Amino acid sequence: MRSENGSYDLRWLNFAHKLKEPCDFLKRIETRELPALPIDREGFASELPGIPAVYFVCKVGARKPLYIGRTTNLKKRWSLVEEFGERLPKKDHHQLKRALRCKNIELRWMKTPNEHLLVVEILLIQLYKPKWNTHGNAMSPTRFKQGMWGREK
Questions:
Q1: pLDDT tens for each residue of the chain, 153 residues long
Q2: DSSP code of 9?
């Protein structure tokens, strides 16, 4: 955001400066070292912790995630997907249903405070550009660059 004289508002510069440290931290995360469970194992959701987390859907052993999401309760989110599977409404967790149909897929997660879930998810999506976080998703890098509520003016 620019002020009337064309310079950037100091609040935005301060905000960008404060994001540099979390971005550097997120770049150092090795996704293969995060806690993980294979999705194709029956009852896997019951083994998940009930914590707020950013989660990664990945091929077993791969570093780059296929999908990145967030939830305030990891166990609850995936229990619903596991219980209802394809019967979940189309708009609800469509990429998670997709993951259940695949083989050799695992769920990895990173415990994240509730108040940071959205920002961490967006930064990780921008960093990894996962294949399944598509243009239709409000948190995809393309949509975020346009502004979360449509194109910026």
A1: 444 555 556 666 666 667 777 788 888 889 999 999 998 888 888 999 999 999 999 999 899 999 999 999 999 888 876 666 655 555 555 666 677 677 888 999 999 999 999 999 999 999 999 998 875 444 444 444 444 434 333
A2: P
Secondary-structure percent of the chain, ordered helix, strand, coil, rounded to 5: 45, 15, 40
**Taking the CB of residue 39, how many other CB atoms lie within 10 A of it?**
23
- Domains located in the chain, CATH noted: 31-146 (3.40.1440.10)
> How far is the C-alpha of 109 from the C-alpha of 100, rounded, in Å?
16
Q: How many CA atoms lie within 13 A of 25 on its CB side?
A: 7
The pair of structure tokens assigned to 120 is: 């961490």
